[in-house]
Amino acid sequence: MNKKTVALTEEQYRKIISTIRNGFVCSDGHIVKPNNRIATALSLEANLGLRISDILQLRLSAIIRDGGRYRLDIVEQKTKKKREFTVPTDIYIYIQNYALESNINPATKLFDVSERAVTKHLKLVCDYLGYTGIGSHSFRKYFATSIYVNNHYDINLVRVLLQHSSTVTTQRYIGLQSKDIENALQNHIKLF
Fold first, then answer.
1. Which of the ends of the chain has fewer CB neighbours closer than 10 A, N or C?
2. So where are the chain's domains?
3. How far from each other are the two terminal CA atoms of the chain, in whole angstroms?
4. Which CATH number is correct for 2-136, 1.10.630.10, 3.40.190.10, 1.10.443.10, 3.30.70.1350?
5. Can you give the pLDDT at residue 181?
6. Which pLDDT band holds residue 1 (cuts at 50, 70, 90)?
């Protein structure tokens, strides 16, 4: 399933999160209520690059103050790799505010929702918006693609952040095909 999902554009990301937060009425008249919990979980996936399975297990207590920074202290469910990356202060405050507003104890999971429920809700939203090829993994791919583009196309940086074992895996993951590479080379020609 993940290989079939596409990375979100920033516009799609904003529209999906906004629609989830505000709720909507389906064409058949079915009312989908606002869901801040799912919107927050997907926002964190897009901003931390974690898989949705890891986001749904996240606890505020798993974010440790380490000197002048915050860092994640978790083990990824899929890979069993320890993850100790920095959590930017703005994201920590966002998570902390969500926990306070939702009256969630720091030792309790932030999101009492299943992966299936997130997938089902996201499908309703994407159908409503007319988006195809989007799943929860699209938010992680959005993270990877944004980091790649905004950091001078540093594939190794993305590899490290996603904890991939090779840049080949990362290139495949963010959709860098040989045609893209050939086009990049062709567009770079600067003969004098």
1. C
2. 2-136
3. 47
4. 1.10.443.10
5. 62
6. very low
